[in-house]
Structures are given as C-alpha cells and as structure tokens.
Amino acid sequence: MMEIVVSKYKKVADFCYKLFRIAELRLFSNKFSKKVYAQYQHLFLLVYRQYRKFTYKELFEDLYDNLTLRAYLGLNKLPDYTTLVKFAKRIPSFLFDKITGAFSSLIEQPGKVVLDSTGISLDNASPHYCKRIGLKTSKRPFLKMSLIVEIKNYLILVSKMRKKTRHDLVDGVPLVKKLAKDYSPEVFYADRGYDSEEMFKTVFEDLKAYPLILQKRLDVPKHRRRGLYRKKTVDVFDYGEYLQRNKGETGIGIFKKRHGFSIRAKVVKIQKVEALCRVIAHNIDRLIESGMTILLEILIKMRISY
Description:
Strand content: 5-15%
CATH architecture of the largest domain: 2-Layer Sandwich
Largest sheet: 5 strands, mixed
Radius of gyration: 21 Å
Helix content: 40-55%
Low-confidence stretches: none
Number of helices: 14
C-alpha cells in the first residue's frame, strides 16, 4: 500500500518536472544564487504542499520520513520552511502563467470552455466567532479567482487572481486573450455578467470560438440592442446548449473541495502564489485521475535528474 502511495507522488513529481521543462524554468533564479536548491525543487515543494493540503510544518514532517520521494527529487537535505516563504515572495507571477500554459502541450485541444469566477476565503473563522469578537460577518476578506475551465476533464486552462472586488469583465477579456495564445476551443460559455460587446468581439476575433453568453434583458428586441456581435448571436441563442455552462461551476466546485475553500497566508503575494499552486496541483490531479499512464511512462523515460 505504501508503494502505491509513493508511486502516486512520484507521478506528481514527473508531471511537475515536465511542466517546468516546457516552461523553460531556469535551474537557479540568478547567477548569485547559493545553488543549494534548484528552482524546480522549490516550486515542486510549493505545489506538493497544496496537493497534500499541508501546512509548512506538516510538509517537512512528511518529507522527513519519506526518504524515497526525497531521493527521487534529489533533496539531500531539507530546506527550512522560511526558504520556501522567501522563494514564494520573490517568484514572478508571469512564471506561473508559463507553467499553466505548459499544460497545452500535455492535453488535447478543448472543445468547450467556461469562464467563471469564485472567491477563496482568507480566514477560517466562523461567523459566530467573528460576531463574538466584533469582526465583520457580512463581507469578509476574500481572494477573487477568475478561471476558464474546460468541461471534459475539468482542467483549469488560465486563471487570474485579484484581491480587490472588480467587475468580472475587467479580468474576463484579458483571460480570453491569454487563452487564445495556447488553445482554440469551438464554444465559449459565460453568464450574463460577461455580457458586453468587447467580450463578444474578443471571443469571435481573437479566440475564433462561438460565444454562448447569456445576454441581459432578453425581452429587448434585436433592433434595439447595441453591438454588432451581440446582435449576431441573439437570434440563434440555444438556451439548452447554454446550460452546459453549469459544468464550469462543477469544475470550480471540484477544485475548491479538493484543495480547500480558504487560504491562511497573510501577505497578498503569497496568497496569490498559493492559489496558483493550487491550480497547478488541481490540473495534475485531474490528469492522474483521467488515467494518463502512457504519457507518464514517456515522461519517466525522458526524466533526467538535476
């Protein structure tokens, strides 16, 4: 039984290694690095922590006893937890975009994708506890995540984190443009919060997909609506097909139930890094659950140790 568990975590390491290679992750952050631990090892530990839902203390207690996994990763000695915290503070955000984009080389082109947003709580206190100590209970701090999910295996293709509350379109349009760089789906679903001429135009022209976006005020006739692309789709809107959008909420539900509804970090940069590591861990978990054993065999043969 222990061998099966260890093998599963080796699969996680193999997927991480391949993703970091595709993203062209440098071995060390700069030439002045102490060169004790590679960036790959730091990033894997951050992803592995989210995959197992560990605290930093639990992470190193697990690795201390797991000699097989440590040898597989080339960790002769374990770093202090503050090393990971400092690495999370200085890692650039665009690197996570490259790693998330690297999944496009491991999966088939998605046919249908859903854009939606959700919130991750930034505390674990119950409403009763907040009320007793005089904290706000109606609107508590959260991290807003905008996600584009493919509805076959519930993989998260692109994501955007934001601490302050803003309209969905602020992050929605850039996410679609980012998606168009690596993917070419056929159908794009979104709720009426993303109803705007700019969104329709971006989906048509940049993504080359058909937008099934529920428009506001369905009682307004076509000749009174604004926008060329909005008018183009209003007559042929298939509400039955639009209900496939609910699978996007299913994918977000799987993500939050598997990796948690809250983040304990207090620094905004580390909050975003933890959320992005959860996205990577979620996609790896979905790939393993979908039975991509043939791909893993190829990755293991190609794997070279740092």
